[in-house]
């Protein structure tokens, strides 16, 4: 744990520095309060100075919004639009139109979409760095001792665990902790389950339900003959939750997150599911959801980097869809540098499948429309791994950004298709 030190009221103070996105502890800290102007705060933040807020809680949130507005205006004035520009994923000097560590070249896909994507990623990374300079101190009980501050102790304990002493975090991170705690309490409705799942802080929430519906609707191995992989019907939620007679005995759910796909498989009649995740929060979250749904007796949730030991009749993987570097722990559910998880799933699948089993790869083709990956490369990797495509089921996104014409990536998002690839052993 890194200690953050500063001088306040003539005395030397310190607290543990915590950052979910692994930001380094600030080396310069200035204590500020309600009398600071937004322009001064923005100037200090741009110089790399951390701003320890001691004023009114709601005034601090307003200051954060004011700093955000100034950052967006500054980005526009530099000619980068609202997204700004200083280098992809925080890295300066990357060539526009090349894919860097994407695993594809700029000759594939829409170069203008790739440029817009890279600009958005730069904007997000820069914005996070600047707004992350406004920090607050939590005391030894996870309390925020500011005027008009809410009780944040339960939300912080849910996210961070029991307190070990005073801790400093960015106000943006604390806002995320509070928002995530409300989702954890409220839950997210999953029509395919007829129930809610409750995501924890730092665990990707299944708000894009189309991939859940794909798993709920796709026939199990041996249930029906294959259809033309290029014209498979769009998936929809199942009409019945009764166990299916063709359900496999064993299944793996790799990168389980909230455990939603493991729950869908169990509801469909799979006898036993082993769910894995490398994130300890996700392991705890999936276990809680399976307990809540009454499915825990048929499931095992383990902390593992992708595959568990043994073999299965069905192996499901919904890897991060975009080959780019995440800027936060939560983004790890969306962005995968170099398509590492995707490649390891395909390359390792044959060693874990039972002879008549299937691997279900759930993947959006947005990366193809952005020029980050090619369909040819995906198919070549599947073949090289000793696999073949038995079938494919497609659906289209239903999230609001797919129809947002103001989004610079609207063309790519509008063409996006999410697919469930049914992979079998080639021999």
TrEMBL record:
Q: Where is the signal peptide?
A: none
| Compositional bias ranges of the Low complexity kind | 223-251
Q: Which UniProt keywords apply?
A: Methyltransferase, Transferase
User: What is an annotated GO biological process for this record, any one?
Assistant: methylation
Stored InterPro entries = DNA_methylase_N6_adenine_CS, N5-glutamine_MTase, SAM-dependent_MTases_sf, Small_mtfrase_dom
Recorded GO MF terms: nucleic acid binding; protein-glutamine N-methyltransferase activity
Q: Does the keyword Methyltransferase apply?
A: yes
- Record's Gene3D superfamilies? Vaccinia Virus protein VP39
In this protein, which residues make up the domain named Methyltransferase small?
Answer: 249-364
Q: Where is this region: Disordered?
A: 1-26, 72-111, 222-252
Task: Tell me if Transferase is a UniProt keyword of this record.
Answer: yes
Give residue spans, biased composition: Polar residues: 16-26
Q: What is this protein called?
A: Methylase
Q: What is the lineage of its organism?
A: Bacteria, Bacillati, Actinomycetota, Actinomycetes, Micrococcales
